[in-house]
Amino acid sequence: MLRVESVNIGHLQPIMIGQQPKPSGIDKRPASGPVRVGPLGLDGDHIGDARHHGGLDQAVYVYSRTDYDVWAVMLGFTPSAGLFGENLTLTDFGTDPVRIGDRYRVGGVLLEVSAPRIPCATLAARMNDPQFVRTFTQARRPGFYTRVLEPGEISAGDAVQVRSAPHDAPTVMEMFDAFYDRQTPRDVLARMLRFPVAERARADFETRLNS
C-alpha cells in the first residue's frame, strides 16, 4: 500500500546561486507531527523564489522512496527524505504512470497532479554540483507538483489512495519531455491543454501554440 514516508518543510536559508546568496526553502526536513496543508501548501514551509515556484497550481511537491533508491546507486549514498526539496516523500507512486489530473487522497488532504518538477540552479546548488540540472533531467525521475483540492492535515505513515485521471490525460513524463522538446507537435500541446496542467506550463504551451 502506498504511504507517506515523510512530510517535509523548509525554512528560508541563504544558498549560493552562482556568486550570489539567495534565500531558499529547498532544504526541507521531516516534520515530527501532523502538518496542516492549505491551498498554498504546507504550514511552516517557505519558498524563496515565488515567481518560479509554488502557487496554487504547484502547492505541494511530491517525490518517492522508489526514486531515491535509484538515486542511491547513482549518487553513492542513500538520500534522506526531503533532499530534493519535496514536501511529501511517498513510498512509491504505484504501478501505473502518473498522469496530469490524477488525484491523491493523503490523510485528510486531496491533491491533484498538475506538472512535473523542472530542475533549476537552486537544485544544483543544493546538491553542490553545477551539472546536477543535467543529471536530474537525464535521470527522468522528476516527481510531480500538485494543487490542493481539499485542505487538511498530513502525517508520516498516512495511507495514500489514488484516483486515476482519464487514460488520454498526458503522463507526467510526456509533459516533462514536452518542456524540453521545443518541436513537440502542436496537436500534442493542444491535447495537454485539455487537462488541468499548472498555470506556468499552460502559459508556455499556449505561447508555443500561438507562435
From TrEMBL:
Domain of life: Bacteria
Molecular functions per Gene Ontology: catalytic activity; molybdenum ion binding; pyridoxal phosphate binding
Protein source organism: Deinococcus maricopensis (strain DSM 21211 / LMG 22137 / NRRL B-23946 / LB-34)
Stretches assigned to the MOSC domain: 29-163
Coiled-coil stretches noted in the UniProt entry, renumbered to this chain: none
Protein name per its UniProtKB record: MOSC domain containing protein
SUPFAM superfamilies: PK beta-barrel domain-like
Pfam family, one: MOSC
PANTHER family linked: PROTEIN YIIM
InterPro entries hit by this protein: Benzoxazolinone_Detox_Enz, MoCF_Sase_C, Pyrv_Knase-like_insert_dom_sf
Classification via Gene3D superfamilies: PK beta-barrel domain-like
